[in-house]
Design brief:
This protein has 432 residues and is of the alpha+beta class. α1 packs antiparallel against α2, α6 runs antiparallel to α7 and α8 runs antiparallel to α9.
Length: 432
């Protein structure tokens, strides 16, 4: 019918008369029109003409899908893959409802977002945090400290730094649970130790290897043995950006890390690792570990121990090794010559593309080395005399290793940006 409520709603929507369109659609829904139900769900999903609402859009999609509307079924099928930018919008809208005192509507939104709708991320964690706080304050729900604590713990376990602070998990060094030759404890990553993850992993591995116990780390759904930690980090950087790849190994602020150990010195091993995290990898604690011979004293570029053999920097060897390493890194990220040339046509990628292309030439590698001043040293302690066998310091190998880590990060960022742009192009193509 030309004058049906559905047609009237469509005309009003095309004229951007959203209030009228919504009123017409709702009257059509009252008459049993499932297509109108689907269109209202789309309005709530996108936030066009109405406040963005995950709860209302999902409910309407579900009702239309149950009634047999195919588009609604398709929407439900892809609903669990909602882009993070949309998730952020839903959480922000729910927070605005809470700030306006609309507590019942706000907590419905927060609960819908955490109801297995999304893979846990910072936005689902944010929702869990606010559910916990609303139970603590009695906003929209009966005040209940027990339920509040349960939700805050869920939020903390999903990397909510607000929840960690609320529960004071960052202030007390966790107790090491030890039973039957096995030990375990949980730590949460501090903001000031997340940046240089590769350096922290090296220190962590060295400390763990000083114990006889078998040590494992459980994080982000993975259980990784100590000896595989470094490999896991590098592999995840490459594979995470491709379809079906593993999740990236990222220590963002608040990341939950379970430390597990088994063996005769398991308790001591876990305790030392926990203290390393809660000292925030401070120089004071590292010095303590050095004095206990748990880790070795790093050699800085400017200060050498007395008992050291030094192998000077060889520029020819450096360039040769870098060209070989960089080629492997580009291959790992599927950044061949054709791909790089195609990327040059897109001005949005120029800033990220430049250092990757520079790594294809000897001149570019030397330019990167000069401009970035990459320091091979991890820490800078005063030197002491050593009675240990001579340590060979290879400036060339150290610089190649540092440059490779730097180049890997540049390739990773470029590939991630390219994948996001490809995804955006695909979304636009589907909509067209």
């Amino acid at each position: 019918m030309e004058n049906s409520w559905l047609d009237k709603g469509r005309r009003a929507y095309s004229l951007k008369q959203y209030d009228t369109a919504l009123d017409c659609y709702e009257k059509a829904i009252a008459e049993g029109d499932i297509q109108a139900m689907y269109l209202v769900a789309c309005m709530y999903k996108s936030g066009i003409g109405v406040p963005k609402s995950f709860y209302k859009s999902k409910e309407l999609f579900r009702r239309a899908a149950d009634a047999g509307y195919q588009k609604a079924r398709n929407a439900m099928a892809f609903y669990f893959n909602t882009p993070s930018v949309h998730r952020k919008g839903y959480v922000e809208e729910a927070c605005r409802l809470r700030e306006k005192g609309k507590y019942k509507e706000a907590i419905e939104e927060f609960l819908a977002i955490t109801d297995k709708s999304f893979e846990p991320d910072e936005y689902t964690a944010e929702s869990m945090y606010w559910i916990g706080m609303m139970y603590k304050w009695g906003q929209g729900v009966p005040k209940d400290e027990v339920i509040a604590k349960e939700w805050l713990k869920k939020a903390a376990d999903n990397s909510s730094w607000k929840a960690i602070k609320e529960l004071k998990l960052d202030e007390c060094v966790p107790e090491v649970i030890y039973e039957n030759n096995c030990a375990k404890a949980t730590v949460y990553i501090y903001h000031n130790i997340k940046e240089d993850i590769s350096k922290n992993i090296s220190t962590l591995m060295e400390l763990g290897e000083s114990f006889k116990a078998d040590i494992k780390f459980n994080f982000q759904g993975h259980c990784v043995a100590l000896e595989n930690l470094q490999t896991m980090y590098i592999r995840s950087m490459i594979e995470s950006i491709f379809p079906g790849g593993i999740r990236p190994f990222v220590w963002k602020q608040g990341t939950k890390l379970d430390i597990l150990a088994e063996g005769e010195d398991a308790k001591e091993a876990v305790k030392s690792i926990v203290e390393l995290f809660y000292s925030r990898f401070s120089e004071e604690y590292l010095e303590k570990l050095i004095s206990q011979e748990k880790i070795k004293r790093p050699i800085s570029e400017n200060k050498k121990t007395i008992n050291t053999e030094h192998k000077a920097f060889d520029e020819t060897e450096f360039l040769s090794q870098c060209m070989h390493e960089f080629a492997d890194i580009r291959k790992g990220f599927n950044l061949n010559e054709d791909t790089l040339m195609k990327a040059k046509e897109n001005p949005i990628l120029h800033r990220l593309l430049a250092p990757v292309i520079e790594g294809c030439t000897e001149h570019g590698i030397l330019k990167m080395k000069k401009n970035n001043r990459i320091d091979c040293a991890q820490y800078n302690f005063d030197c002491i005399e050593s009675t240990t066998p001579p340590t060979v310091i290879d400036d060339t190998a150290d610089m190649v290793s540092s440059m490779s880590r730097y180049y890997c990060k540049k390739c990773y960022r470029l590939r991630v940006k390219m994948e996001k742009m490809n995804l955006l192009d695909e979304v636009i193509r589907i909509k067209d």
